[in-house]
Amino acid sequence: MTDITAGRPPAPATDGTAPDVTEPPLDTEEAERSADEALGLKLGTTTRTEIDDYTQLMRGQVALFASAVREGGGVAARGSWLEADQLLGRGPADDCLVFAAWTHVRDLARLLRRLVAEYGEQRAIRAQALPDRSCPAMPNEPVGDRCTNPEPPDAPATEHAPAPVASER
Q: In whole angstroms, how far apart are CA 71 and each of 26, 46, 48?
């Protein structure tokens, strides 16, 4: 099996501290755009050099997104990673027909589209899992006044009515 690794090392620290290990999110728009361009290559009008250039680009992006999706976990993520591993391991030879190289780059582009979609779903799930701050700190307001637990529905009504907003005046 081919070992898939994300090739972005952390930035070197210049002030003597440890480098930041959190990586920025992958560029999904760029990956989708390059996959669309690779799928738009025409067999009769595209040179073998252009196909090989797109193949290298697709291979790099598939490797990055496959490792990111695998880190996200899940059975589907493992299946996508295995498919990427197999596809990256069986690239066309240098002396193969143009049709074989063209088919391979199209397979890479389709897989990249699916990996980008899975990566986006994983990021959305992680974003929803973060706790929301329902009582943000307001300037010049004590925290105890704003962050109180709501009263149960069967509790007696309070004597205070909310102040009308500007649109109700």
A: 13, 36, 34
| Rounded Cα–Cα distance for residues 105 and 115 (Å) | 15
Distance of CA 146 to the CA centre of its chain: 36
Instruction: Tell me what the mean pLDDT of segment 43-49 comes to.
Output: 89
Q: For residue 96, what are its two tokens? A: 């193969």
Asked whether the beta carbons of 62 and 113 are under 8 A apart, the reply is: no
Residue in this structure with the two tokens 């999110």, named with its chain if needed? 25
Per 3-state DSSP, the chain is made up of helix, strand and coil in percentages (nearest 5) of: 55, 0, 45
Choose the weakest-confidence range: 31-35, 54-58, 77-81, 107-111.
77-81
111 pLDDT exceeds 90?
yes
